Amino acid sequence: MSDLEKDPNNPAGRDGVSDENREQNRVEAIEEATESADLYKEDIAPEAHVAAGEPAANTPAAASKASVVVPWIVAVIAVIALAVVLIRQNDDGNTLKGAVGTLNGKDITKADFYTVMYDQVGKDQAGSMLDNYMTLKLIEGEAEKAGLTEAAAQEAVNQEVVKIKAQYNFATDADFENALSSSNTTLEAYKKNQILPQVELRAIFEKKVAPKEEDLKAYYDKNKANFDTAEQVRASHILLATKAEAEAVLKDLKGGADFATVAKEKSTDTGSQASGGDLGFFGKGAMNEQFETAAFKLKKGEMSGVVESPNGFHIILLTDRKDAVTSTYDSVKDKVKSAYLDEKVNEGASEWIETAKKDAGYENLLTKTEEPAASASPESSPAASPSASASASQ
Known about the structure:
InterPro entries: PPIase_dom_sf, PPIase_PpiC, PPIase_PpiC_CS, PrsA_foldase, Trigger_fact/SurA_dom_sf. The protein has helices spanning 24-32, 48-52, 77-87, 110-145, 150-167, 173-181, 187-209, 213-222, 243-254, 259-266, 270-273, 289-297, 333-359, 386-393; strands at residues 99-103, 106-109, 232-240, 278-283, 303-309, 312-322.
């Protein structure tokens, strides 16, 4: 990721801070997925329906982290992963006797490990993990009943990944996977535990609400701006610490030096240095003001002079430009449908899950409270009876 994206925690943000936070904007949301929470029991953030569907093309890169990579649904990669470790059966006869390690020639069994983990996290947290796990299994089963095939689900998941990468300007799969890795998860785990439940809920609610053409057109008319594409440019840059250094590099470039080669050798922006300074496409609002103003004034193939910004001195080369595109309903119909269904999921998922749990006979034995033992009533207690009191006084 380049230093330039307009996150207040990024060096090239409007406030400008240290270089160490350059990855923060795009991975913050992924790190959200490691926090323990039952999101389906909470109110959905007002902006969630935009993120769940097709994001507005002119949304700044510093969009709400809740709308980034964590589609609204459920929980928490780390929590679910741990729940699976604790409860899922291996192919070892469906028992807890299977070994998960050995020590001094003796097996450490799954049951041993379960006991230790249970003791460490406590009953409440273990119950929450189990609830998350069972909820995901419930959603999976109901999606199958709604007609979602494995192949269709996988295709939808892959499409969501493409949207996320585009929204947050991940140039390659490796960049995206590195961001996930920094949050201690993998792309496959993220697809399975975060994106897939959203896809499954979308299928469930498509059958439940059965949207008509007029419903989708009305939704499009109301949210048309979300489906239009704003003007974008693609630029490369070389970032230097001082104006003198930048002017010297600019002189070399004007003398015929190759821009990408010089960027690799001299740029201090480690986020774009390896790619020859390439920043990919971005719209207005994504970069700091000084950089953005200079970049959007350039013509394709034109190079800027020295541009000063909060974190240094830039030389910018504009490599491509995309004009703004006004959408039509027919051109974005599939995206409209996905966004419409995601809004319905946001509005009704909590209630649906609670109802589905009751219908499926859901019972979490880790959170079940024991009924207190019945105590004798004062009227029936021998010590409280008048005759008993009289006998005792004799």
